[in-house]
Amino acid sequence: MFRSVLGKTLGFVGYTIQYGCIAHCAFEYIGEVVVCSGPSMEPTIVNHDVVFSERMSRHLFKIKKGDIVIAKSPFDPNMNICKRVIGLEGDKICTSGPSDLFKTHTYVPKGHVWLEGDNLRNSSDSRSYGPIPYALIRGRVCLKLWPPHSAGTLSQSPTRRIIKTQGDSDSD
Q1: How many CB atoms lie within 10 A of CB 25?
Q2: How far apart are CA 93 and CA 96, in angstroms?
Q3: Which end of the chain is more exposed for a tag (fewer CB within 10 A), N or C?
Q4: What is the pLDDT of residues 86-122, one digit of tens each?
Q5: Do 120 and 41 contact (CB within 8 A), yes or no?
Q6: How many CB atoms lie within 10 A of CB 156?
Q7: What count of Cα atoms within 13 Å lies in the side-chain half-sphere of residue 163?
């Protein structure tokens, strides 16, 4: 009897470890479902919208300007942020506001991206903390899942701050 219980327990533990490894690989390399909170991505993503974030683009270095990404906060590693990619390494970014008399610019350093929220007036983003390392990107948001009336692919940036550079292809 003891052997039978021990055998069943070890079998259960073995299956649990196997399924845990499969789940870990799925969440790390395929994608995850994320509940977004905060006003920084309005009107594209509003508070409590549920999105799917795929991870393959990050691993294959296929993140491009205009993509919405989930990234680790540069200030709090326990918090994720949801922002739009405005610039990639080497891009020149205008950091001044539209009403500023003198325009200021910065370049995105190698291995970094420039992120901004769609709601520029209510977003803490690269304009305040600078470019973030590419390694902080967790995934690219490709679908909105909830609410049902707005489910589907995500729209382009309402701020029109994404500027093509000479190195960008015409097919984008």
Answers
A1: 10
A2: 9
A3: N
A4: 999 999 988 877 677 788 888 999 999 999 998 888 8
A5: no
A6: 11
A7: 7
Tokens standing for 15? 């299956």
Residues with Cβ < 8 Å from 10, sequence gap 6 or more?
none
* Secondary element (H or E) of residue 77: none
| Phi, psi angles (nearest 5°) of residue 138 | -95, -35
Residues 78 and 82: their CA atoms lie apart, in Å, by 14
Structure tokens at 73: 């906060």
Give the contacts of 88 (CB within 8 A, at least 6 positions apart): 63, 64, 65, 108, 113, 114
CA–CA distance, 15 with 151 (Å, rounded to integer): 35
**Tokens 């905060």 map to which residue?**
38
User: Over the stretch 44-95, which tens digit does the pLDDT of each residue have?
Assistant: 898 899 999 998 888 787 899 999 999 999 989 899 999 999 999 999 988 8
Tokens of 38: 């905060």
Residues serving a catalytic function are 40, 83
